TrEMBL record:
InterPro entries: ZAR1/RTP1-5-like_Znf-3CxxC. This is Zinc-binding domain-containing protein. It comes from Lasiosphaeria hispida. Keywords: Metal-binding, Zinc, Zinc-finger. It holds the Pfam family Zn_ribbon_3CxxC.
Amino acid sequence: MAGKKNRSKGKKKGPAQNLADLPSQMVYPHLHGRVVEALLPDVLDPEPWFVHEPGTRENRKETFIVGRFSCPNQSCRKAGWTTGKVCIHITSYANSGYRAIVWSQRCKLCDTMGILALDEQSYIDRVAFRLKKWAGLVVPAVPYVKRGTPPHLSDFCEACIAGFCERGVLSLSTSMNALRLG
Ligand SMILES: [Zn+2]
Ligand SMILES: [Zn+2]
């Protein structure tokens, strides 16, 4: 999968072995019900549904949500980091299908993939806003949460590493191949 580089150089000591299996992208289909609630009072017809097996996409939007990562490497002294720049790709499919992929980030001290505690409300707000936009509704923009979080570290952001986010340089078709693997 794109975004999964061979990082054998960064061999961890101790019990870090199975940390290599932590995902670079996550999906949160269990938040779908709350996304639909957040559409109210608007009711989209057909009602949006979360796509598990992506087919041909119709639209895609890259944006950011808020979250806190923790470093699961017990031999690392970094507890975690909060960021307003967790990259999310929202994609629409036929018949109101959609899918949202959230990209992980790595610990800047030890390069282990972080574990994300998502700010669920920011996810719900972003996705609901985008679904309404795509449905042609006029909706006020959801303001970005401005927090004093440190600058975005592209070298440790899986979306940037895959060529999206602040390093969005790949062509769309190449990008979509990476997305399909979510
Ligand atoms: Zn760490
Ligand atoms: Zn990034």
